[in-house]
Amino acid sequence: MSSKEKETGSSYKMFKMFKRNFKVIEAEPPLDVKDAFSKYSEGKNLMTSDQLLQFLINFQGESDAKIEDADKIISNILQSRHHIAKFTRNNTLTLDDFHHYLFDQHLNFPINPQVCHDMTAPLSHYFIYTGHNSYLTGNQLNSESSCVPIINALKNGVKVIELDIWPNSAGDDIKVYHGRTLTAKVPFIDCLKSIREYAFVGSEFPLVVTLEDHLTPELQAKAAEMITQTLGDVLCTSLECLEEFPSPGALKGKILLSTKPPKEYLYSKDSCENEAPCEDDKNEKKVTEDKNDLDTEDSEDSGGESENIDISEDKSCSLGVHKYKSLIAIHAKKHRDGFATSLTLDPSKVERLSLSEQQLEKGAEDHGTELVRFTQRNLLRIYPKGTRFNSSNYNPMIGWMHGAQMVAFNMQGYGKKLCLMQGMFRSNGGCGYVKKPDLLIRTDEGNKLFNPGEKLPVKTCLKVRVYMGNGWDSDVKASHFDSYSPPDFYVKVHIVGVPADAKKFETEPLDDSWTPVWDQEFSFPLTVPDLAILRLEVRDHDTGEKDDFGGQNCLPVRELKSGIRTVPLYDREGKKYNSAKLLMRFEFV
């Protein structure tokens, strides 16, 4: 390049940065889009609704598409792009219109945006969007406790909220905070009111509230009164002694409490006939000395066992505790007496077990199939290890591949792991419930359970083609990426799943373009596609500096629609950009 050309280029970059209103040059349609238009329009310049329907059925794999769907697409495109042509075009699309349809995130989805899973199976057959310490605004040690993160979680579709309930300093009221830390406190009643108001904003399917109960019997009685008065008829009471849980569909509009029942009732005549009494936890009262134990079972799931207080002397208190017990819909139990013992099945009842991420990782080494068997009928909750003081998260895949329904996450812990969680639960219409794949629910033809650690043959190959991207110029400031030039975008394309399926690729960086065209294809042989997630992340390449973040998305592979699709991008917190998106193609071969 001559010195004059370099100067012109530099001037153009400076000019482009400061003249933000100048239109970004639009990239032409990829070759695959041109070929598809030519084929289905039969070589003509215009595509009719009948021809578009054939494209939807044969190329996009939408076998249930109807002519009304094609008409609606054309009408939307003409309405948005040609206000006059919609009256003169006779309901047809040009190549440019066709390309705009394919690159419209509101018309051409990568996954079904509606609830599309069977919602009539037992709760244990679903992954459930689960929060950890849902009241915390920041870290686990000294951040604020508030109703705001609870409300935000519910708005975003979270369907399991966790509250740690403790006596206040006077011992006459109930506060929510992370015990044995410096986190601030929020009144229990305020949390209940927020839950009641926002429980079904995300979807009408049931909400589970897990209580980490550190209350005296008197305060358990008070909690029962608060819960009853605040939640009222939306509260689903005891489901004990059931051989299987009800379905999400049957529990629409209901809130279920889950905790351990008060200690005296573990031995009472009201218990299920075959329910074995739990032993006292000898370490129940022990104050944690090691920071590593901050979230071990003593603090995570003390679950309502009174600390050796005799409640039989106060009849009114006893009645209150009985009322409290009757409100517990899902009974929880502790992990004790060995991993295998915790997974023992009782055919006469179903319950919830909690394990830390470390306990799961260690136990899964020798008890992978037992975990899968346990989660076919019972609920398993996984929570972060105690050393995650900064509210970071762990890889949710180890929980999901063993059938754990409640993989509890810190919703304020932004990063790649939370992106996986958010991506999983954008499927099935974002309702907070995702049907587990059949391999986790049933045995195979030889009556064999799925073993996550077993090497399996390749079942399918996913081909992913990254065509192009655009929209960043509308969503971010010109200087967000580079100060004096357009960004140099590239895309990371990863599969997260069972270890044998994990694979990473990335496109070449495209220099100085707000509308990059990569047109690169990557192949992913998959042994367990039902548990695989496609992770996408856009970066701006910077020599000598950390590459800037340009958006991300995670898509469950089993939910992917084949064909050419628009993939919207999300920011670091999981909020969707208004315009930034990728045009991609997905094929299963």
UniProtKB/TrEMBL annotation:
Lipid bilayer topology: Peripheral membrane protein
Group of enzyme by EC: hydrolase
GO CC, any one term: plasma membrane
Location of the C2 domain: 444-571
Disordered as annotated region, ranges: 271-311
Predominant location: membrane
Keyword line: Cell membrane, Hydrolase, Lipid degradation, Lipid metabolism, Membrane, Transducer
PROSITE patterns (UniProt xref): C2 (PS50004), PIPLC_X_DOMAIN (PS50007), PIPLC_Y_DOMAIN (PS50008)
Keyword Cell membrane recorded: yes
Residue ranges constituting the PI-PLC Y-box domain according to the UniProt record: 354-440
Any one of the GO BP annotations: phosphatidylinositol-mediated signaling
Bias (Acidic residues) ranges: 295-311
InterPro entries: C2_dom, C2_domain_sf, EF-hand-dom_pair, PI-PLC_fam, PLC-like_Pdiesterase_TIM-brl, PLC_EF-hand-like, PLipase_C_PInositol-sp_X_dom, PLipase_C_Pinositol-sp_Y
EC number: 3.1.4.11
Subcellular location: Cell membrane
Bias (Basic and acidic residues) ranges: 279-294
Superkingdom, taxonomy of origin: Eukaryota
Catalytic reactions of this protein: a 1,2-diacyl-sn-glycero-3-phospho-(1D-myo-inositol-4,5-bisphosphate) + H2O = 1D-myo-inositol 1,4,5-trisphosphate + a 1,2-diacyl-sn-glycerol + H(+)
GO molecular function annotation: phosphatidylinositol-4,5-bisphosphate phospholipase C activity
Protein name as catalogued: Phosphoinositide phospholipase C
